[in-house]
Amino acid sequence: xxxxxxxxxxxxxxxxxxxxxxxxxxxxxxxxxxxxxxxxxxxxxxxxxxxxxxxxxxxxxxxxxxxxxxxxxxxxxxxxxxxxxxxxxxxxxxxxxxxxxxxxxxxxxxxxxxxxxxxxxxxxxxxxxxxxxxxxxxxxxxxxxxxxxxxxxxxxxxxxxx
Length: 162
Hints:
Blueprint: E1 8-12, H1 18-24, H2 28-34, H3 44-56, E2 61-67, E3 70-80, E4 83-90, H4 99-110, E5 116-121, H5 125-133, E6 137-146, E7 151-160
Parallel strand pairs: 4-5
Antiparallel strand pairs: 1-2, 2-3, 3-4, 5-7, 6-7
């Protein structure tokens, strides 16, 4: 998988993908960097109940990320209030290989809602670089309670225009 010519594919997420996605989000380091996770991220039943609903919600574009046919993450557009936002999660084993950047670039060609926002913990340098490499511009900051850290932290807000 270290080959930069790996075959990256996005496809709509299906319910059988959720078991693998659930396992990815249990990683402690990934949770720490994501910071703003669910209060019940380790509760499998709650996770499946929540994400099964998301799969049929028309305002959410859920895609599964595959490398050479192997599920390595997920990416989605969702709406909060009036704003479209992006979220993604890459299996910890695959960090640092450019997968998130390639997946986000591909996703943004499928999901054309603009503007679209990304939020990232102040110390999640990897995700900041992913957003910037895909044309997002840092437009501000916010703070909030980060469940994964059990404290309030700062987050950076990024926007991608048309």
